[in-house]
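The pair is set out directly below:
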Amino acid sequence: MSNKSIRFAVNTSIRNKNETKDWWGLTNKYQDKTGTLDEVRSHIKSGHALCAGLLGGKPRASCNVIGSQWVMMDIDNPTPLLDEKGEKVLNEKGEEIPDYTLGLSLEGALAHPFIQQYCALIYTSPSHQPHWHKMRFVFLLPEFESDPDLIEAQIQLVAEEFAQSHDPNVKDCGRVWYGNTNAEFPLFNPDAVLPADWRQRAITLAEEHKAAEAKKKADQEEKKRIREQQIKDGLVAAQDTDALVQDALSYIPQRSPGTGNHKECTTVAMALFSHYGEVEAARICEGWSPSLKKGGWNVSRIMAGFARTNGASRVTIGSLFHLAKYYGFRFPVRIGTDRYQQSELSIPKEQWLKTCGAERPEGYQYVSCLCTGLIQCLGALPYIAEILATSATFQISACLTDEAGLVRAINFFVAQCRAS
């Protein structure tokens, strides 16, 4: 059993954490291999980058994974140990140390029942230190898995065994795993394999995810239907958010391989997902930047990935507007009832102080405070002011519904200043 062959992808052009900064090579120079776990260990010790998923000669991306035979976990122990006063605890060398009650030390890993029974390999990662343990676990699947949904479900099942200590970003079956020329291998057990019913458990989990996503999509569609009916019946006023989103998207370049804009396009997709939900976000995103056959830009898969991993939870529609402003977009100001124009309202500093009787806070405190006031007075995005503070002038460019809204915003801001 120790000579059992396993399949994996290896990138021998990369050493440790990409010492040569060859980012193109880190994505493109993978070769699918068949070998033993001992050969995997040799690649790790040589500093080569690994991918648990086979890529078929294509660039490393989850959408290009054609199958996998193992699952890896990344234990970084990110939480520092704190004393009763909430201050970081230092060792005798003055170094911060992790809180292993919220993580896992090497000793704790070797004593972990699940690891003792099912883990095939443990190695220390490039950033491992004697005072701060960081390691990787390799778990062999009962059989080669070609279904990407089941691969990710099996990753999640393993991750649940280490809920407090593993890197929560380890959900991508196309993730790169750096080698380590200084690696230690405290455990090597090539006979260890995950239990025979592991795949069936993954099927159950995947079905639960699909059912939950189907319900979420149905709820989103129902909310949209109700909203549209309320607008049609005159029960609520239609908002301008959708029009502003479309206007903002027209400024942002579409995804184009080789331009380096994958990250910002992913941010746009996250913002749309966060605001509209998976179904509507996919429709809008496809209209803005259609899926590509090559280049890793598949809108439906990207949105499905956000839904599975909650990957867009920290991005709001404001990120889309912020990016669009970089490319020239500006929020309009409503004039009358049915037309818009670009406008700015400048309030000289001396007039502000004379009218409001309050000193302005400096820098970020001013921006944060006034934005908070505008949000509370004028509603959520897109009615958020763009603040440009200079030494002599406060410039406010926003989508204001009426002058009274600005007055309420100023009053709220002044109250915040006085309270602080």
